[in-house]
Design goal:
With 180 residues, the protein is an alpha/beta fold. It has one domain: Carbonic anhydrase (Beta-carbonic Anhydrase, Chain A, 3-Layer(aba) Sandwich), CATH 3.40.1050. The protein contains six helices and six strands; from the N terminus they run βαβαβααααβββ. A hairpin with a 6-residue loop joins strand 4 and strand 5. The structure holds zinc ion (ZN).
């Protein structure tokens, strides 16, 4: 462990939900120093906006990409996600205004089109689409766009099933989430 005191050179930035059932090191087998993490409710990354107040999400992303120069970014959504599920089912969040504000501004309204029945499959479909939307948002950050252009960075969309431990990865060639 003393090696860790000299600094960090993580293999990836892992962006996932704050959900306690999602444990990045368990999913990936990563050891200390190998994963830089950004966790938010519903694994949402705010859109890049040059005039916006600095956010913790933007700072974490910029540090990982520009300073630590991670070669990979994984956005990992998960099954049974309460944040995405709340949007899919159109739940009343008036008792939790900060949650309502965050999800309302970060998760698209049309997620509910995917799952009016609010079933697990509907939430999974919404989570997977949401993951792809986050990859698009990442591309809007100048630091990400620059390193993508030079081939120094790769983006990955994952879906983790909390009930089976199965990990699916988005395959752009077939536009589908398939087992990793
Ligand atoms: Zn979640």
């Amino acid at each position: 462990m003393t090696r860790l005191a000299r600094g960090q050179s993580p293999h990836a930035l892992f962006i996932t939900c704050s959900d306690s059932r999602v444990i990045p090191s368990l999913i990936t087998g990563a050891r200390p120093g190998e994963l830089f993490e950004l966790r938010t409710a519903g694994n949402a990354v705010p859109r890049y906006h040059v005039e916006r107040e600095p956010s913790g999400e933007a700072a974490t992303l910029e540090y990982a990409v520009s300073v630590l120069q991670v070669p990979d970014i994984v956005v990992c959504g998960h099954s049974h996600c309460g944040a995405v599920g709340a949007r899919v089912r159109g739940e009343d969040l008036s008792a939790v205004p900060a949650v309502a504000g965050w999800l309302g501004s970060q998760l698209p309204d049309d997620l509910s089109e995917l799952g009016e029945d609010g079933s697990g499959a509907a939430v999974a479909a919404a989570v997977q689409r949401h993951v792809q939307e986050q990859l698009e948002r990442l591309r809007g950050y100048p630091c990400v766009a620059q390193r993508l252009e030079t081939g120094q960075l790769r983006l990955h969309g994952w879906f983790y099933a909390v009930d089976t431990g199965l990990v699916l990865a988005h395959q752009p060639s077939v536009d589908a989430f398939l087992p990793l």
